[in-house]
Amino acid sequence: MENNKEQKMDIELPAEVAPGIYSNLQLITHSSTEFIVDFIQVMPGVPKAQVRSRAILSPQHAKRLLYALKENIEKYEQQNGVITEPEQTLPYQMNPMGQA
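Above: the chain's sequence. Below: its structure in token form.
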């Protein structure tokens, strides 16, 4: 017989992580076993961008992230209106150094 009880998990948010990081560009690469998401901060007029954080996910967790983002964007748009994307393209070419 299956155990249908929902398990609870305590999640700790350390003080040094709580402020988060600002990212206005994300690069995603993958292999057969993992997805790598680099969160990058691009500053206007600065030719070099900096990776501020990196997340490495299994393919299953990457797909769960996709679904969670989709669900949260739908909720956001219901409350705040449709998110519009700028029509402009990035004014620079990316030259990633140290590929994952």
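The first helix runs from residue 59 to 80.
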